[in-house]
Design a protein that fits this description.
By secondary structure, the chain is α+β, with helices and mostly antiparallel strands. Among the domains are: 148 residues, ibrinogen binding protein from staphylococcus aureus fold (Roll); 121 residues, no CATH class. The chain is 39% helix and 21% strand. The strands form six sheets. Strands 22-19-17-18-16-15-23 form a seven-stranded antiparallel beta sheet, sandwiched between helices. α9 packs antiparallel against α10. 37% of the residues are buried. About 3% of the residues have low confidence.
């Protein structure tokens, strides 16, 4: 937010707030606070020290409810305590900007708030008795105040002096935009980006500022906005003059406060969406790395396994010796029963006879075979989970709104333990062929099971025209048979309000054909499905439970 916009907003707020009381300071994020005031029951004073959204705002009560962020930090919680102690009920005496700077002072008899928008990062500092008590924002505390520098105001700074100051700052190693801000801090980053550092470009901008009006440069009409459209650092711009941006929409609002409120809403939406998406992408990419490493480890374990075919061959050769194994022998040479004329040299336990040594090799062969099956199954599950996580990553990158992210929260990877309520999870049964059946127990668990746990190719069941549980049949390898579908359908029929009927019709479809519907958790829209007519059966005592 530039100094010109700040001045216009403060000009609108000054007659409303001067002599009025601030009350009930509330954190609306780790870097922002809002106050109720005696000036209006429906409006709030919002002071923001966040990157990309810093500024002074006069916003509606409903807007505050929509935009408030419950995240806090130790620094913000400490600031909240001091704000409540010193400014709850304080009367505003002054709202002003430091000349030549983008720093705002809000003075009361009990203390003052200093909001600095310039520097490495914005900061909002509470000052009482000339000493800073608490600060919100990522930057250092906004105290002491910078000296007044009216000569650096855009309408007082000569274009030639501006050009010289920019050249000196660039010679010292600063980028062009930083050099422009050093020469005229009041311009702010948005206007600074419009200048090339020359006297002519500065004079042109100053001339535009003489006809300033509240302007927003946005991706399109507000009704068409998607959260992803608002996520970029320059996706939404608030300026006191029109800015040329190809393909962008320019909005002129009736007041500076209204323009700032719409800007805050757009920035909060975009920043919140991008923060959630980055966190989800980090989680998915961690899971991808773990699953890739799991695949490597399983392949190594598989390579280390003894060959059960060779072990059985050796065991059969030892059985031919039977009791003819010489006492104390640790190595024997025996004919290969599968290749006449070929001999095998085998290590044996001298304490055991030929039959016992053969049985030991048979046992090792059975263990190796069982381990190979288990490792092979885990490898297929890991490959399936890895493909799912990569699909999830692609979907996250293509997501457009916050509700798109709701259904893309990663599920726990293989081998990851859960704690608390998540450890219990939905009831988990096994079909007679060993496939997993998961059952939702209420509306919220149905929602979670269907859209966060189930994979797109899993099978989804629900009693037709009757409230009941969502039932998921895991089908990682596409090997679910008619018996598995029937058993899952019987479970869905049993966990529904139609369970007392002799037979129940049950929806059966792939999870990818199920979409969330409005009206609350657990409500869905089914694209297409088959109908199974089954007898409701209690899985307890009939199906194995995990």
């Amino acid at each position: 937010m530039d100094a010109i916009t700040l001045d216009r907003i403060l000009g609108e707020l000054r007659p409303l707030l001067t002599g009025r009381h601030l009350s009930r300071p509330r954190l609306v994020g780790p870097t922002a606070v809002c106050f109720e005031t005696s000036a209006s029951r429906d409006r709030r004073l919002w002071l923001d020290a966040g990157r990309g959204s810093a500024g002074v705002y006069w916003v509606g009560r409903e807007t505050v409810k929509r935009l408030a962020d419950e995240r806090t930090s130790g620094r913000s919680r400490q600031a909240r305590l001091h704000l409540r102690k010193h400014l709850d009920g304080a009367r505003v005496t002054t709202l002003a900007r430091i000349a030549g700077e983008r720093t705002v002072r809000i003075e009361t008899r009990e203390g003052e708030l200093v909001l600095r928008l310039s520097g490495p990062a914005p900061a909002l500092t509470l000052v009482v008795g000339g000493a800073p008590l608490a600060t919100l924002g990522d930057g250092p505390e906004a105290w002491p105040l910078p000296p007044e520098a009216p000569e650096r105001e855009p309408d007082r700074l000569a274009p030639e002096a501006f050009e010289s100051a920019v050249a000196a700052a660039q010679a010292a190693g600063r980028s062009r935009r930083r050099a422009v801000l050093a020469a005229c801090p009041a311009l702010g980053p948005t206007l600074a980006a419009e200048l090339d550092g020359s006297a002519a470009s500065f004079a042109e901008v100053v001339e535009q500022l003489r006809r300033s009006r509240p302007t927003l440069v946005v991706p399109g009409p507000p009704s068409s906005w998607h959260d992803a459209d608002l996520a970029g650092p320059d996706a939404v711009l608030l300026a006191p003059a029109p800015l040329e941006r190809p393909g962008r929409t320019v909005l002129h609002l009736d007041s500076w406060s209204a323009a700032a409120e719409l800007f805050l809403e757009a920035r909060r939406r975009g920043l919140g969406f991008e923060r959630r998406r980055r966190a989800a992408l980090r989680a998915v990419r961690r899971r991808v790395l773990r699953l890739e490493q799991l695949g490597v480890n399983l392949a190594r374990d598989l390579a280390r396994l003894a060959d059960e075919t060779v072990l059985r061959r050796e065991a059969e050769a030892l059985l031919a010796l039977a009791t003819r194994l010489e006492p104390g022998a640790s190595e024997v040479t025996v004919p290969d029963p599968h290749e006449p004329g070929r001999e095998l040299i085998l290590q044996v336990d001298p304490k055991l006879g030929g039959v016992q040594n053969a049985e030991r090799r048979f046992q090792r062969a059975r263990r190796a075979e069982r381990a190979r099956r288990q490792i092979d199954l885990r490898r297929r599950e890991a490959v399936s989970a890895l493909e799912e996580e990569r699909e999830r990553e692609g979907s996250l990158l293509e997501a457009r709104d916050g509700h798109d992210l709701d259904t893309l929260e990663p599920v726990a990877p293989l081998g990851e333990k859960k704690t608390g309520a998540a450890a219990a999870g939905p009831p988990h049964y096994l079909t007679s062929r060993g496939l997993s059946i998961l059952v939702g127990r209420n509306a919220r668990e149905n929602q979670h099971l269907t859209f966060r746990v189930a994979r797109p190719e899993d099978l989804w069941f629900h009693a037709r025209d009757a409230p009941g549980s969502h039932v998921i049949l895991r089908d990682n390898e596409g090997r679910a048979g008619a018996a598995d579908l029937r058993e899952a359908g019987e479970v869905a029929a049993f966990f529904s309000e139609a369970r007392r009927q002799p037979k129940v019709d049950v929806h059966a479809t792939r999870r990818k054909h199920v979409r969330p519907a409005g009206g609350g958790p657990g409500r869905v829209f089914v694209g297409h499905s088959e109908t199974l007519r089954v007898v409701p059966r209690d899985p307890e005592g009939r199906l194995r439970r995990r």
